[in-house]
Amino acid sequence: MPLNRIINDPDDVAAEALAGIVAAHPDLVITTPHARVFRAVQPVTNRVGIVTGGGSGHEPAFIGFVGPGLVDAVATGEVFASPTARAFEAAFKAADGGRGVACLYGNYAGDNMNVKMAVKLAERDGLTVKTVVANDDAASAPKDQIGKRRGVAGEVLMWKAGAALAAEGADLDAVIGVAQKAIDSTRSVGIGLSACTIPAAGKPNFTIEPGMMEVGIGHHGEPGVAVMPVKPAREMAALMLDTILPDLPFGRGEDVAVLLSGLGATPVMELYILYTHVAEILAAHGLTIRHRFVGNYFTSLEMMGASITLTRLDGELDRLIGKPARSIGLTVPGA
Amino acid sequence: MPLNRIINDPDDVAAEALAGIVAAHPDLVITTPHARVFRAVQPVTNRVGIVTGGGSGHEPAFIGFVGPGLVDAVATGEVFASPTARAFEAAFKAADGGRGVACLYGNYAGDNMNVKMAVKLAERDGLTVKTVVANDDAASAPKDQIGKRRGVAGEVLMWKAGAALAAEGADLDAVIGVAQKAIDSTRSVGIGLSACTIPAAGKPNFTIEPGMMEVGIGHHGEPGVAVMPVKPAREMAALMLDTILPDLPFGRGEDVAVLLSGLGATPVMELYILYTHVAEILAAHGLTIRHRFVGNYFTSLEMMGASITLTRLDGELDRLIGKPARSIGLTVPGA
């Protein structure tokens, strides 16, 4: 088990962190009859409901994005483990306002399996659920195998866009369409500077040697595309953007949203040093940053490092990302 | 120098982080003619201005609390080093809206000296500046030497209260009075789980052995009151609250605000585990939590650990802390 942690029993960290979040934010997120499902305070009424879900250890994701203008209900799992099908089903019901539910989640085997099962269970009860599977991690598979790519911090902007359109009263197909467009327009890449340990496992299931960094690392320590000595921040930014800019590709004159997330144990100060270089490189590339988010949005326990997410914006995505929202993880003024 | 950092030249981290913050939040904080002074976008007009300042390495403090309903201008220093007197003076001028300036800062030798000098410089130019010196760190000196105590994360709630009263149009003496009341009603304590390294120094100026924790540690690694093996989160919470509850003291039936801050490298998940126990103990102590803030508010580079801050609330402080504010570090909805 990692030293220097603020935990009790290593088997209880997910449940205890979730309980703490609910205790700390009673104005944003409340419990439901299902112990691992949480919902926004305001119930969904006569609009499409937004659901997501995933394993714990990525805080504030996923529960921290529940709130006005964002996610309506969330299914949570143990550390780095998918929520159950029953949990997803319960989240669908908790987000049902009579006009269907959009389940916007990440491309992991367990989540795919359990969401599919949950959709069937919900449909038996007369609830319509449609899904978008995020696959924004550009380093996780070649572009011609885009369906194999994992979902990472780009999910935040997918939720934001889908939820903002749902709030405007759009129907389920339109909400699904805009969430799909958001994630199709998004690329992310991570860089790991230290490993992390699932508390209940007691030791890391991967290693990053001191002084080394891993480009393209996944949110659970999945292998990246290159391991090399730690570079200065400006070279890290260049390496990361070299992965994602040509992949979509992002072209001169386009508008983008940038989300730069710490992986858990990297200080806030360093995220802003990295941001400076991201902004410089994007400007040199002829891109205009319309929305910027820097902080801990999608973490991996105590991993050091950061991820960069870029979303290409058309007028609709630009408008939806700028709409008011309020949650633990992301607040856009006005809500 | 610590490995696994996202930095360039170790001598440039403060300047580069500040530049990144300004680049990432043009809606909140802008530059001034003084390179180390930053101010809110909206100039101060016909009300008291709120200024703070301090060393870098505590991000989002101090610059991250500039914004509507919070700090108007901030003087920043190198990592863990006081801003200069000229920087404080420039911050006073940047926050001058014709009704005087309240400088609300922490009790450190360099800050005390430079603020005093800056106040004299500003007064020569006809600007009235009054000060409140935060000394909320209960572990930093005995209660009968309260003037020797350091200011830590309690400063955030002092700024919040003073700024909210200034926004209502109160005069300088009233703003100073409420900021003094806020800090006099506040106690904080930190617990360190790992050391931190000033990048330009290249090695830690203190040590916390793996598996050990230091109760009462300061925000620059100043020695605490006890070093012991790492305890479960619930015992950490009890130890920390045993330090601050009897010190004010906080009595049954009182209302409090809680601010729980990570020290930089402790994951968000663990802060919420700690919060659960803080809430339990405060409830058992007969205290009602009226405002709660959990996150990275006042950090110490890549130190692992957390601080707990409690403020006893009368009706006025309760009202002022609940008023809208918007900044990188703290947002209260409505602004």
TrEMBL record, chains A, B:
GO terms for biological process: glycerol catabolic process. Residues 9-330 form the DhaK domain. Its EC number is 2.7.1.121. Pfam families: Dak1. Gene3D superfamilies: Dihydroxyacetone kinase, domain 1, Dihydroxyacetone kinase, domain 2. It is an enzyme of class 2 (transferase). GO terms for cellular component: cytosol. PANTHER family: TRIOKINASE/FMN CYCLASE, TRIOKINASE_FMN CYCLASE. This is Dihydroxyacetone kinase subunit DhaK.
